[in-house]
Amino acid sequence: MKSVGKHISRIYRRLNILISHDFKDLNIGSGQYLFLITLYENEGINQKVLGEKLLIDRANTTRAIKKLEQAGYVKTIVDTADKRNKKLYLTKEGHGIIPAIRQVLVKTKITMLEGLTEEESEQLFCLLEKIEKNVEKGIETMKEVAHE
């Protein structure tokens, strides 16, 4: 029997190898670019919202932000209206590496889609979106059953 999950998992692991190699000089790991891109698009959000947007748990989000702060790419500023809320921003260096990150992502996309027609690429994205929605629906159903 063919396994969709197996192929998705294998693609994900191999992509991480490619991306990690290209991000080595930027001093970031394959998962940290997601935080940087998301912060670039949503500066001033807090850590909880950032983790929710990326579907990453609190502990892993905390670790990633700490590493990015140590690397000089992210800064945390306490909200003056609510001292418990800490807002996240990219530093000058964080903003500076966004073009390099985007370049790596474009290169990776080209590698992934090599040999596919534009129609096949569009169909692939549609199918992946459907699969993602189905999995999300499955998780919601699981949660509903667990609360009964």
Describe the structure.
This protein is mostly helical. It folds into 2 domains: 4-114, Winged helix-like DNA-binding domain superfamily/Winged helix DNA-binding domain (Arc Repressor Mutant, subunit A, Orthogonal Bundle), CATH 1.10.10.10; 116-148. 69% of the residues lie in helices and 7% in strands. It contains 6 helices and 2 strands. It has helices spanning 4-23, 32-41, 47-54, 58-70, 92-113, 118-146; strands at residues 74-78, 86-90. A two-stranded antiparallel ribbon has the order 1-2. Helix 3 crosses helix 4 (58-70). The protein is globular, with a radius of gyration of 18 Å. The relative contact order is 0.10. The mean pLDDT is 93.
Biggest β-sheet description: 2 strands, antiparallel
Oligomer: single chain
The total strand number stands at 2
End-to-end separation in angstroms reads 33 Å
**CATH evolutionary superfamily of the largest domain:** Winged helix-like DNA-binding domain superfamily/Winged helix DNA-binding domain
